[in-house]
Amino acid sequence: MRRLEKRFYTVGMAGHIDHGKTTLTKALTNIDTDRLKEEKERQISIELGFAPLHQEEDMQISIVDVPGHERFIRRMIAGVGGIDLVVLVIAADEGVMPQTREHVDILSLLGITNAIIVLTKLSKVDADLRELAKDEVAEELKGSPFENAPLMMVDSVSGEGIQELKDLIIRSTEEIPVRSASGEFRMPIDQVFTLKGQGTIVRGTIYEGTIMTGADLTLLPQGISTKARQIQVHGMNTLQGFAGQRTAINLAGINYQHVERGNALVSSSDFAVTDTIDVSLNLLEEIRLGLKQRMEVKVHTGTSEVMGKLIFFDRNRVEQEVESILCQIRLSDNIVVKRGDRFIIRRPTPVETLGGGWIINPHGGKYKFGSETISKLRSIKEGTPEERILKLLDREKSVSKEYILQKVSVSWDELTEVMNQHGWVELRASHVTHTSIVEKCEKMIRDVLRTYHDKHPLEKGINTGELQQMLKSYPDALIQHSIQRLLRQQEVKKENGVLSMEDFTPRLPSQWEKRCIQLIQSILKDDLKVKTMEEYFQEAGIPESLRQGFYHFFVQEKWIAPLDEKYAYAHETYVQAVELLKKNTEQSFGIAQAKEVLGLSRKYMIPFLERLDKEGYTVRMQEKRKWISHEE
User: Fold this and answer.
1) Into how many domains does the chain fold?
2) pTM for this predicted structure
3) Range of the domain at 389
4) DSSP 309-373
5) What pLDDT is stored for residue 332 in this prediction?
6) Which end of the chain is more exposed for a tag (fewer CB within 10 A), N or C?
């Protein structure tokens, strides 16, 4: 039974120059993909050519004809990056040629495994040569991903085998999983041009997502905002473009000179713009010269081509390597990629394809040479989406979902699936974290509080703002969330913005406790005619270095009530004096009345009354004070 949802596929024609790719494309589609005058004159493909092969209600197949000449290999790479199936074209009268091998290498490195091998120009060879050609192709492809690919024999001029090949392509694509249309839209650009009255038009194969007419888009890496004014597929206007579909988009408000091959159109900011990528690199078995540390290479990914330097962390030179190498490429320009994107590296001179692989991390960092970095890269390569997100959180503690999409290169579907699992915590401002991170933060808070209590046993605890300064590696929202959890669990307590462990009580050092108690008793004994605090400290024999700490402890525990910088009453004496004054004065009173009630001299009276004002017992009105409601 056919699926109701329409599927879109792109089939690539690859092979050596003059082996009949363009002629075969025309035989299959009735369209000549050589559009340029130079292509007609030289009878070679220079630019990518496109044609519709098959259109039904539930499926559409397009063909991309890639250049076979060595000079245009970069355009070939740009063209095959978005294909779902390759038709490898080999002329029966010439057999496997250098570009045939290079195309096979490139296709293999790009992870393209769906293939049909086609021997063309059958009219130029007899039956015996046909069989020899088939044997040669089988031998050449042994060990490659196309070793077991079906082989067809056709003649594009006479039409022999053409319909059978077309039917095989259609049957083969029906077995290929369709590209995801559910994610954010991305289309690497391989052609850009302008038409009079139309403005800027770009072409490419949609790698993922969908695009609607009128949709807001961003051109990366430039970061230019634009709109999809019009969408075409094979010259026909359409309201929507889908993943896997060859599409032309007319862009609004952007000069075509600001767009080039290698740029990408995207629908969100979730795609990485980067100049440093961590990669898993596989080298071709036969490379003429060894690769060296910091060697310059041409990097091809999507439709972009950019120079880069190879950075190894476990070697300084590569002679021959069967296993993949975990390394980094530092690029001369920004590119637009995500985790899982394939790439090719080529030597600039002498020109040759060296290898390729896939991007394990679009945002590479500065790493040290050694096994520790290799282990880190291996965990990035092999990690599940959840493991990679947790690794990001180990560093960042809490992040927005958009940041995860960009830095970890997961899809919205993958992120949603991870977030639906147990243990994920949503903080304010759309930030998320994990309970494992929260538990680490809670442990840090407990450790900080205990250390603080040990160093400052006289103090009630630590101010919340000061705690946040001491936990700089944790975002404020995460700290607040962790504090609230600790409060609910009754592991910590909070009073007037000061945090402490639930079981902590401020205490005097045992060796000074007796002298401090004697000091307070002396203040109590002196009632309202107290001496300066310095005198009391001296009489008690308390060293100057400890006095400030003890003084704050006495105030905090309400053992004393300071009048000013010099004098303080015992807190009990102060409360009694307030009650006595209130009982023996009217609603309003002056200094003279207060002196008469309490019998205090001016040096005590003035700071005593100012403390009443400060604490809200009274309010000053010119020369008098008025009692206001106050509860002790």
Assistant:
1) 5
2) 0.68
3) 383-507
4) EEE-SS-SEES--SS-EEEEEEEEEEEEE-TT-EEEEEETTTTEEEEEEEEEESS-----SSHHH
5) 95
6) N
